[in-house]
Model the fold of this input.
Amino acid sequence: MLEQAGDGAQILAGGQSLVPTLSLRLSSPSLLIDINRVVDSAPLERSDGIVCCGSRIRHVDVERSTLIREHVPLLALAMPHVAHPAIRNRGTPCGSVALADPAAEIPACALALNADIVLQNSIGRRTVPAGEYFIGLYETARLPTEVVVELRFPEAKIGDRFGFVELARRRGDFAIVGIAAAAQVEGDQIRNLRLVIFGCEPKPRMSAAAHAITQGLKFPELPIEEIAAAVAAELDPMENSQGDAAAKRQQAYAMAKRVMWQLNGRAA
Amino acid sequence: MNATSKSSVDVAFVVNGSAISDKVAPRTTLVDFLRQRLGLTGSHVGCEHGVCGACHVRVDGTVLRGCLFLAVQADGAEVQTIEGLSASGEIADLQEVFVRRNAMQCGFCTPGMLMIAADLLARREVPSREAIRDALSGNYCRCTGYQSIVDAIEEVARARHGLAV
Done:
């Protein structure tokens, strides 16, 4: 149906990002296809080192899941920041990734964990790693005919550390600046730090500087201020009513310090 | 394609225990339908894009934004509005304490606040003030500044668990 309707059609899953854009007349699809009763969605489940989140899993399901708390702790840390309770009751992680709002938490977590994004249309199914999926402002590798049917998160390994921080006007509001971080650790040594900053640029960014600086370093002896300054310096923030570029770099610096303190203090 | 391009769609669902059926334009939100077609004006329309929480309704037991949910999506569902919660007595204690503690001034946000508070208090544990504030984070009040609303919900939570208030 999506393919017959052409470019003007949109999929309606939770509707918590899409319907506001309709209300504000920012988008006007020729056809809305409600998948809530159609798609045979996969449940939240774990197999072969992967935790899989299907298209009709709602944020609230992730928030309350012990499977997520144990095996994808970064998502559990992020979930209280994902909008408000009544929105989490309805919105979906797959929908969040499909629309790729720059202030959304799930895309940032997907990138920090290098999750696989499974896309499907009538021709077939393909998997795109999060690192190749987010292209620009609301722009992704998803074709108009494709539906995000699954998010596949690699499960946390022993010793891995995770952190999540977000600056917003009130809890659950759109992030001004947020950071999702995942560190692969052997002993105390950092093998791979994926620190993803979101909210202040058109798409979530994995900090190359944070990765490079921390490679091989040990917890808790990290040059946190140097890392935070490097993270902030990489940014090219969008200027808007919430602040100019300099203010957002300063906020990013503060958030980066906080997330590094979190990583320093806690093992998964 | 014919079924989807119609200017109105048949819907049938249950509202506060009564079965209703009607034709609605697909673009109609649930809260507009409840207010304009059924006269259930307790659910308020504030921001109309999911920010303020004044339009909270329950659909199949889950609180959601009535302005981000289309009436056609309610087909076959069980909808409860503030009128239903009020009539059933489910939130009588919350209502009484909201009045006594001045947890409302103009009252515009109150139905949405009561709706989410009822949901929070239905859980097993007594919520902390922090948890109450988190639960209310999606509801705007432009008059009373939240303090007395948190006080009221905390009092009811403690009273329901037999704790001193």
Remarks:
- The two ends of chain B are 59 Å apart (CA to CA).
- The interface with chain A takes residues 1, 4-5, 26-27, 29, 48-50, 53, 56, 62-65, 67-70, 72-73, 116, 119-120, 133-135, 137-139 of chain B (CB under 8 Å).
- Chain B has two domains: 9-81, 89-160.
- The first strand of chain B starts at residue 9 and ends at 15.
